[in-house]
Design brief:
Chains A, B: InterPro entries: Homeodomain-like_sf, HTH-type_TetR-like_transc_reg, HTH_TetR. The structure is a homodimer. By secondary structure, chain A is mainly alpha-helical. The first copy, chain A, is built from ten helices and no strands. Chain A has one domain: Tetracycline Repressor, domain 2. In chain A, helix 2 crosses helix 3. The first copy, chain A, starts with 19 loop residues before the first helix and ends with a helix. The interface between A and B is large, with 36 and 36 residues. Chain A binds a DNA duplex through helix 3.
DNA sequence: CAGATTACTTACCAGTCGGTTAGGGGGCGT
DNA sequence: ACGCCCCCTAACCGACTGGTAAGTAATCTG
């Protein structure tokens, strides 16, 4: 009774609607790309919706909030990296596992530039700031490598492996960041330098 | 003629107005603190004004735009760091200059937690992303240290000093970041580990 | 003591943000 | 053939952003 005049079409006449699964996948894809280009804060729901060819409200229909969508995008970008690094570490011997970790991680990020900014962003924005936790797997690999090499406990010659892992992690971040906005930079060569530094420290 | 009714007081009757110099200094101070706590994007003009006890418009009266204020805050936070590191490097011998650089930088950031996030933020937000440029002074110090030690050119044993400086810089960033949200963490001890790694790499 | 200057205030603006609401078109099962 | 449900749109919200316009009290200057 208030106002019920038939407004404009409620649906684009041209393209068919996608199934929920397909739409979710598409939206995650688009979101990863946009966050990669402009960061999370610089990516609005409206822009995501526009890039997907639907409206903002439709995006929120699938993912109740922007936060949920961004989280899904982060997760999607991360699983690829985790699987890649996991496989590389597993196929390397215990002694070379830390090197495999560093090299495969940098290599993956080089080959998936879209995911890189998203992951960096996820780490920077989210509560994943707890760096020591972030690099704990690397510290564990380093510990195992030293034992496999016959070296002593964690603090041999005043060396703290947790701290070393944090430093190496910082090196990885720096290499990836440099790669992001210096196209001419070769991240894998830098990663090999980093591995050389690590080896000199790990196996004195 | 349109509307000229005398509105409310144009000035807080209580506190006296500050001189331009004093107000600018206070605003920079407040801005550094707020950016340190919530980052640049998370710090609005209104919040800065509130913390300073004046209105948003008054802030813009002193610094024509938010950007100008933030730039001033960044500059203020940076000059202290640059002076401190410069002095430390100068008082160290050429051979120990890289170590002095790393240790004094981490030490300063530990002792000035307020400035830390601001500097990190300035690097992340601004166009100072060109990390290689950022750590170029360190690379130069490393080069000089190797020559003072009688070591060969930059690429001795496949070692690229620019890349090494980038990696060490990443380590510094990681240590500082860890210090920021892990109060129990000792950044100077970690910096000493980093220096040990660097020495092993620099003087083989 | 008059006038200009300094350091503000209130009020307002246009734009963007994430999120909500009401409804409607198209394909499906019956 | 019909009704229902899924996927979607248009329109709107309130909160917040940086920035502007106009006016005014206290202080300085002549």
């Amino acid at each position: 009774m208030a106002r019920e005049n038939p407004r404009s079409p409620a649906r684009k006449p041209g393209e068919p609607t996608l199934t929920e699964q397909a739409r979710r996948a598409q939206l995650i894809d688009v979101t990863v790309r946009l966050i990669a280009e402009n960061g999370n804060a610089g990516t609005s729901l409206a822009r995501i919706a526009e890039a997907a060819g639907i409206t903002k409200a439709a995006v929120l229909y699938h993912f109740g909030s922007k936060d949920a969508l961004v989280r899904a995008a982060h997760e999607s970008a991360l699983t690829g990296l985790v699987e890649h690094v996991g496989a590389a570490v597993e196929s390397a011997g215990a002694e070379r596992a830390p090197a495999a970790y560093v090299l495969s991680m940098v290599g993956y990020l080089r080959d998936h530039p879209g995911h890189t900014r998203v992951i960096v962003d996820a780490v920077a924005d989210g509560e994943d700031r707890r760096s020591s936790e972030r690099w704990r797997p690397l510290a564990d690999l380093m510990h195992a490598a030293r034992r496999a090499h016959g070296a002593g406990s964690e603090t041999d010659a005043g060396l703290d492996l947790r701290t070393t892992a944090l430093i190496v992690g910082g090196g990885i971040d720096a290499i990836v960041a440099e790669h992001l906005d210096h196209p001419g930079f070769d991240p894998l060569a830098a990663a090999e330098d980093l591995v050389a530094m690590l080896d000199r420290t790990l196996f004195p």
